[in-house]
Amino acid sequence: IVLVSGHLDSWDVGQGAMDDGGGAFISWEALSLIKDLGLRPKRTLRLVLWTGEEQGGIGAKQYYELHKENISNFDIVMESDEGTFRPSGLGFTGNAKARDIMKEIMTLLWPINVTDVYDHADGTDIDYWMRDGVPGASLHNDISKYFWFHHSQGDTMTVQDPNQMNLCAAVWTVVSYVIADMEEMLPR
């Protein structure tokens, strides 16, 4: 299973369009693009739209508890939770061999200048999996304006830039599809 995700809940103000509607949207879009292109990877792609992230990650904990017995079937868990601004690469948590594979995959995104692999994946909703050794990835993007809107009444759809979101969705699509279609799972 290659899991792509974002969370749906928002803070007590605003609409949660950026935090984290953008992450939910690009995860949905990644699977939609793969389907529209008629691609059928070797492994399952799964979309999870988390709930309860802002309330302590209770949705992620429940999902983990329900599925942890099948942890060996999870190839990578991916979460976007820091906006969907201009992407620069992925944070990655995994061993050195898996990191080398991720760096190779990211070279495919050279045409849109999104090739960096950073040292650590972040994500409340995927932390349980990464602690148990499942490789994890999180979207890195230009967060210079993130805290202008984060947990505020300004977190509305007008924050989203369709061109930047398309780039984020492209990153999510390429990475999730390539990993799901590899002959072997990422090393642990």
From TrEMBL:
Domain Peptidase M28: 2-172
Location within or outside the cell: Endoplasmic reticulum; Golgi apparatus; Lysosome; Secreted
Record has Cell wall biogenesis/degradation as a keyword: no
Pfam families registered for this protein in UniProt: Peptidase_M28 (PF04389)
InterPro entries named in the record: CPQ (IPR039866), Peptidase_M28 (IPR007484)
A GO CC term assigned to this protein in UniProt: endoplasmic reticulum
Single GO MF annotation: carboxypeptidase activity
GO biological process, one term: proteolysis
Listed transmembrane segments: none
Stated family: Belongs to the peptidase M28 family.
Subunit structure: Homodimer. The monomeric form is inactive while the homodimer is active.
Designated name of the protein: Carboxypeptidase Q
Organism: Xiphorhynchus elegans (elegant woodcreeper)
Gene name in the database record: Cpq
